[in-house]
Design a protein that fits this description.
Blueprint (H helix, E strand, L loop, with lengths): L7 H13 L10 E6 L2 E7 L9 H4 L19 H11 L8 E6 L3 H10 L3 E6 L1 H5 L5 H8 L3 E4 L1
Parallel strand pairs: 3-4, 4-5
Antiparallel strand pairs: 1-2, 1-3
Length: 151
């Protein structure tokens, strides 16, 4: 019997999808996994910082207030949460890979590049989600040598 074994890419993207279900955001659920050498470094999902509010509980159906650009005023993005937790715990992100269910926005792309992450797998397009003409985060990462792959 020759069963197909899932690749680590499949496993990590599936985990990112599962993590997205943990999000307390009422507008979008995004998950992220950081890995290096087939090992998980950190995980994250979008939502308010720990110890603040859970939007789906505090403001069910409508979520938190929007900032001047129409984004959540409280939420950290899944990539931010994964990177912050890794750094807080002393993980080395040089040469790491990020798996995320939504391609990074431009501010997250800057953080990803600055952290030394060299490869990003993403499931869905941030530009398509937001109705934008281009995926600025993906464009930024590609311009500066971070490999991006739509999964």
């Amino acid at each position: 019997m020759n069963l197909r074994k899932p690749s680590f890419d499949d496993i990590f993207m599936n985990l990112a999808e599962e993590l997205a279900l943990k999000s307390h955001c009422v507008r979008a659920q995004v998950g992220a996994v950081l890995s290096k050498d087939t090992r998980i470094i950190s995980i994250g999902y979008n939502g308010p910082p720990a110890g603040t509010h859970n939007c789906d509980e505090e403001w069910p159906g409508v979520g938190c207030d929007r900032d001047s650009k129409g984004s959540c005023s409280l939420a950290l993005h899944a990539e931010q949460n994964a990177i912050l937790y890794a750094v807080k715990n002393g993980a080395d992100l040089q040469q790491a890979t990020l798996y995320t269910t939504l391609s990074p926005c431009l501010p997250c792309a800057r953080l990803i590049f600055s952290a030394g992450i060299v490869q990003v797998f993403y499931r869905n397009s941030y530009a398509e989600y937001k109705g934008l003409a281009e995926d600025e985060g993906i464009d930024f990462l590609n311009r500066f040598g971070v490999e991006t792959i739509r999964f």
